[in-house]
Every structure is written in C-alpha cells, then in structure tokens.
Design brief:
By secondary structure, this protein is an all-alpha fold. It contains 15 helices and no strands. The protein has one domain. Helix 9 crosses helix 13.
C-alpha cells in the first residue's frame, strides 16, 4: 500500500523531531521553571515566525507532485529552485529582525522579568538558523512531492540526533565545554539545522536518479514558477501565520496565569506532539498521492488515497488518546519533578485525549486538501475557527470565568473538534478535484 510506504518514513521523521523536542524540554526542565517557560515562549515565537514559510513545504509538494504525476521533470526542479531562492531572502530578513526584537517578543507576552532575560538570548540564537530551516522546508516539499519520504527521514534523523548530543554537551557543559544552559539549547539547534541543510544539498547533488528533476542551486528567479509557488503557498502561509498567532495569544493567556501553569502548558504541548506523529505521516502521504494522482488524471485514486490515510490516522491517534487519558502522570514525570506542574499537566492531557480522532481528521485531510492545491478554503476555515472560536473561548474560560489552564485547554479541544469536522466535510464534498495549479 503506497500510503503506508510513504507514511512510514514521514512518521519516522516526525518521531525524531518529537523525540528531539521532548528530550530538549526534559533537559531544559532540569534548569527550573523559569528556563522551561523561557524556552516554551521562545518555541511558540519560533512557531509563529517559521509558520510563514512552512507553507513552502506544502506548496512545493503540491506543485511538484502534480508535475511528477504528469511526467514533467524539469518543472519539478524549477519549483524547488524558486523555493530555495525565497528561503534565502526571507531567512536573512528574519534573522536580522529577530536579533533586535527578541526581547520585545517576551515583553509583549507579559513574561516575568527573569523569563525575559533568559528567553531573549535564546530566541536571538534560534533565529540565526532561519535561512537553513526554510531551505529544509523547500527540500522536504521537493522530495515528498516526488514520492520520496526516505531522504527527508535520513536528514531529519541525522540532524535531530546531532541536536540531542549537542544539547547535552552545551546545556550542561560536558566534554570540556562550558555549561551554557538555555543558550546552549539554542546554539545546539542552530548547528543541527545548518548541518541538515548541508546534508540535503549533498544528497540532491550526488543522487544520479535525481538528475532529471534536480534544481540548479543558483539564486536567480524564474518568475513563472515563482508566481505559481506564491499563488499556491500564500494562502497557507497567511493561514499558518494567523493560526500560529492564535496559539501565541493562547500562550499569552496562559502566561497571565503564572509560571507554573505556563510550564505545565509547555510540557503538555510538547507531549501532544507525540500524537501528531502518525497523523503527520499519513497526511504527508495523502498530500503527495492526491497531488500525483490529480496530475495523472486519476481522480478516484486521489480520493481513495485521502480516505485511506485519514482512517489510518484516526486509528493511531485514538490509541494515543487512550495513553493520554490513562497514563498522563507517567508522561509528565519524564519532564519535571515539580508536583504542581505535574498535577496541572495531567488534567490538560486528559482533556485533549477526547479529541485525538478529530485531530487526525484535521491534520490528514487538511494536508490532503493542500496537496490538491485547495489552500484558500483550508485557510479560511482554520482562520474562522481559530479567531472566532478558539482564542475567544480559551480567554473567557481561563480568565473571566476562572477555569484557568483547564479552561484554556477546553477551548483548544473545541477548536480541534470543529476543525476535524470541517476538513472531513470539505474533502467529502469533492470540489478540490477541480482545482488547477
């Protein structure tokens, strides 16, 4: 089954990223609640700024998959080349801007003074790797669009393994290096992301099988491909930025509850990434296969690929929901021994357990629709649910009604449920089959 063949390596990639995030959180958690809160806010800020360019992954995949399905090799390479060009331009802008505005980001979120001091330097260093992270998005979209999820898996596992090793060395000061704490975690990430980019470049230049599809690693614009890429990716980019901003607002709400709830929230969000692993893998498979089959004019095969991936995603995320509900404490103690943080974390994981199947539908079918280039509808749907339901409800439940962290996560659960239903309705409707790239 091609869905499983593509999803397996994609899940392995997501697993390595998830394990990296969990290990990173566990190591930083040993530095105290302030450090954990600083990295949590920094991670959310990175999510916001990186989300603008994450669309280059799904946009590249959708277009490359169409051209691959139609047998048009040269245009596949042109799409990747333009994605790399955009990576360079926007990466430099973000690195420079982040260097001067990182402290302000923490103040904007009303973080405590000690958290601002730790987090500002952390975020500055993380943003230095922006260009290389964006380039990795471009390469990932290119390879998965061709139906190759193994190469991104190799790169991701290699880079993340290096990140874990460097975390241990630089955070705690091992092998003769100074103990850099939170800054060490950021520096480890920068080195790992640069290494991942270099590995992608080596692979794409050395693989003989890629010669027909290979992009020229030059930074000159091809305006037709550039406009095509921007047209497909721009709605997703805007959607991701606004949705990420919604989650930033969510974190800001929780920041007002104090450092302990903020630390529990950070751990909870990182643990829930475990459940994203199968859904993301099946979503990537659905995205690539839907795009390729549409390019080859195999409409029924495209639809079948999407539903198969969704069913598998629901099955695996339901299992994760059971783990969240029955074993939440065992997950929390991996990251902290603070009993107050553990108590709050257990509650929010149990809340999220009930909506795991709907999260699968949201992720898998959302990626399938993006693979069909139905990015405008996905954008509109997610923005409406985020800003008219998720953020206002989380605020009202957490603060005016006094439900605190549990109330905020109740709003998150309702967002996931609504988004899952909406994506299912759209995919079943079939209008995505008529969209041209």
């Amino acid at each position: 089954m091609r869905v499983l063949g593509l999803a397996g390596p994609a899940m392995a990639s997501m697993l390595s990223h998830t394990l990296l995030t969990l290990v990173d959180t566990a190591m930083v958690g040993r530095l105290g609640a302030d450090a954990l809160a600083a990295v949590g806010i920094g991670g959310m800020a990175m999510y916001v700024v990186m989300s603008a360019f994450f669309a280059i992954d799904s946009g590249s995949r959708a277009i490359v998959a169409r051209y691959f399905g139609a047998g048009d090799c040269s245009r596949c390479g042109q799409v990747c080349q333009q994605a790399l060009f955009l990576s360079l331009v926007f990466g430099i802008i973000l690195s420079i801007g982040g260097w001067f505005l990182s402290d302000d980001m923490y103040r904007l979120m009303r973080a405590e003074t000690t958290v601002v001091a730790l987090g500002g330097e952390y975020l500055k260093l993380r943003l230095l790797a922006a260009t290389f992270i964006f380039a990795a998005f471009a390469f990932n979209g290119f390879f998965t669009g061709l139906g190759d999820t193994k190469t991104p898996m190799v790169v991701m596992i290699t880079a993340n393994s290096l990140n874990v090793i460097l975390n241990y060395v630089l955070i705690f000061g091992k092998l003769g290096f100074p103990a850099l704490g939170v800054e060490g975690a950021a520096l480890a990430t920068v080195i790992a992301r640069v290494s991942g980019f270099l590995l992608y470049a080596i692979i794409i230049l050395s693989k003989t099988a890629l010669k027909a599809y290979r992009p020229r690693l030059t930074f000159s614009p091809h305006w037709e491909r550039m406009k095509q890429l921007i047209r497909i990716a721009a709605p997703t980019s805007f959607e991701q930025v606004m949705q990420a901003t919604g989650f930033l607002a969510f974190t800001t709400i929780i920041t007002q509850l104090g450092t302990i709830p903020l630390a529990a929230n950070n751990i909870g969000l990182n643990i829930t990434m475990i459940s994203f692993m199968p859904a993301y893998g099946f979503g990537v498979a659905a995205s690539a296969l839907v795009g390729q089959n549409l390019g080859a004019k195999k409409i029924e095969a495209a639809e079948r690929s999407g539903w198969t991936a969704a069913i598998l995603g629901v099955f695996f995320m339901t299992l994760m929901g059971l783990v969240f509900f029955f074993l939440p404490k065992y997950l929390m103690v991996i990251f902290t021994n603070d009993q107050q943080v553990i108590h709050k974390g257990v509650t929010i994981l149990k809340i999220l357990a009930f909506v795991q199947p709907f999260d699968a539908l949201h992720i898998v079918l959302g990626l399938a629709l993006r693979g069909a280039a139905d990015t405008k509808w996905v954008m509109a749907c997610n923005l409406i649910i985020t800003w008219l339901l998720f953020v206002p409800l989380s605020y009202v439940l957490a603060l005016p009604l006094g439900a605190g962290l549990s109330g905020a996560w109740g709003g998150l659960a309702l967002f996931i449920f609504s988004a899952g239903i909406a994506m299912t309705w759209r995919f079943r409707g079939g209008k995505w089959k008529e969209i041209e790239v």
